[in-house]
Design goal:
The protein has helices at about 1-15, 15-35, 35-65, 70-75. By secondary structure, it is mostly helical. It folds into two domains: about 1-35; about 35-75.
């Protein structure tokens, strides 16, 4: 009887447990590759901020072009 339990434990620990561990970590790996809702919102906020900064830069360049026409040559 003790020998049967030992063999059963060996079979359980050599086949299903390693398969379960591998599947668990594969699932975690796939989940970490996806973008979360918070990350997606942050990326959208950064995109909007970059568009605003680009508009401000264009405005500054326009003002400088009108005020100091040769500013680009000095830079």
């Amino acid at each position: 009887m003790d020998q049967m339990i030992g063999v059963l434990l060996i079979v359980i620990f050599t086949i299903p447990v390693p398969v379960f561990i591998v599947l668990y970590f594969v699932t975690k790996w796939k989940q970490s590759r996806e973008i979360s809702g918070g990350d997606e919102k942050m990326m959208e906020d950064l995109w909007r901020l970059s568009l605003r900064l680009e508009e401000r830069l264009e405005s500054l360049e326009t003002i400088l072009d009108n005020e100091v026409s040769d500013w680009r040559k000095k830079v």
